[in-house]
Specification:
By secondary structure, the chain is mostly helical. The chain has 12 helices and 5 strands.
Length: 346
């Protein structure tokens, strides 16, 4: 089988083809490429590639186009099908970017640079996901009873907020060796950027609650022995449960917004900005990077600025707590009134 690329050039003029349908096909080549990248690229990227390939395979099967030509027209039809399936614009863009990356990497094919020219592969603006300080306090004060899963969801949400918007995937993968010298240091699964968070008593208390329940992992979200793609499967299942529980908690708290794994991260960034924290410090705190940056050097004074930035946010959240004689919470550490200091192996 030959994958014919429609160049818009009349037949016999300079029409190019991609020979991928005499097996191995593009899909087989792409799956092979993904397997070769496992253990080299970050698990979340591998997960994105596999999800995009499964989605394309489903489209081809449902539409009866398993032997169809991989063309600009087919890519447009695939994007339209995703839209009809209710897939958001940014998720469609993620699928298409993943397919484009694989298309550009696989060997044995003649590539067209404009194959994805007619579909959106950028990042569309999304509705604001942050919640207010008052709403954060309502989530914090929720009575979850003896339901350990709801307790875990509440704790993970608050921990994400306290830890400068730590993403759920990074929380799920945290191990004991991330803690040293009063700080929690991790590398973002998505970008590889290193982030250092000073442990506050409120964070230690949450960690203490779940200590030892999942080997050396700090939270019982992904089995401690799981690695690679297996760990990512457990992570995706845990993420689904977490988001369902957050939606229930939002309803219980009387919030007229949807809580999701992104809300704590967006909320921390918004609160930090509202308190006058410099955008550069917010970027460092959240582990942001860009394609033009090859390496970011963070001096100790920068780490102290980031720690002070987090202190501003936590103090802002704590303004409803009883104040000491100096007008601050009774202890110097944020949320210390609520979270008793706990030794956590540091």
């Amino acid at each position: 089988m030959i994958i014919k690329i429609n160049t818009g050039v009349p037949e016999g003029k300079d029409e190019r083809t991609i020979k991928c349908t005499n097996k191995p096909s593009f899909l087989k080549l792409a799956h092979r490429q993904v397997r070769q990248m496992e253990g080299i690229r970050c698990p979340s990227t591998i997960g994105n590639y596999n999800t995009a390939l499964r989605s394309l395979e489903r489209f081809l099967t449902i539409s009866g186009k398993a032997e169809a030509t991989l063309s600009r027209k087919l890519v447009v039809r695939y994007d339209r099908w995703l839209d009809e399936e209710g897939v958001s614009r940014n998720t469609r863009s993620c699928y298409l970017r993943s397919l484009r990356a694989l298309y550009n990497r696989v060997g044995g094919v003649r590539r067209r640079l404009d194959l994805f020219a007619d579909v959106f592969t950028g990042n569309a603006p999304t509705p604001k996901r942050a919640i207010s300080v008052a709403e954060i306090r309502r989530v914090r004060s929720l009575d979850v009873g003896d339901d350990w899963q709801r307790q875990l969801a509440q704790d993970v949400f608050l921990f994400s907020l306290y830890a400068m918007g730590m993403p759920f995937v990074d929380i799920a993968m945290l191990r004991q060796n991330a803690i040293a010298g009063g700080c929690l240091t991790y590398r973002r699964q998505k970008t590889g950027a290193q982030v250092c968070v000073r442990l506050e008593p409120c964070m230690r208390k949450i960690l203490q609650r779940w200590r030892g329940m999942n080997g050396d992992r700090l939270f019982p979200l992904v089995p401690h022995e799981a690695k690679g793609e297996e760990a990512m499967r457990f992570y995706r299942a845990a993420l689904g449960r977490y988001n369902r529980l957050l939606r229930q908690m939002a309803s219980q708290a009387g919030l007229h917004k949807t809580l999701s794994s992104y809300v704590a991260r967006h909320s921390w960034a918004t609160l930090a900005y509202d308190k006058g924290v410099a955008m550069s410090d917010i970027s460092v705190a959240m582990g942001h990077t860009n394609a033009e940056t090859t390496k970011i050097y963070i001096e100790q004074k920068d780490q102290m600025r980031v720690a002070r930035a987090n202190r501003k946010v936590l103090d802002f959240i704590d303004e409803d707590l009883p104040k000491g004689a100096n007008g601050r919470p009774p202890q110097a550490t944020p949320l210390a009134k609520r979270c008793d200091p706990v030794e956590y192996g540091i």
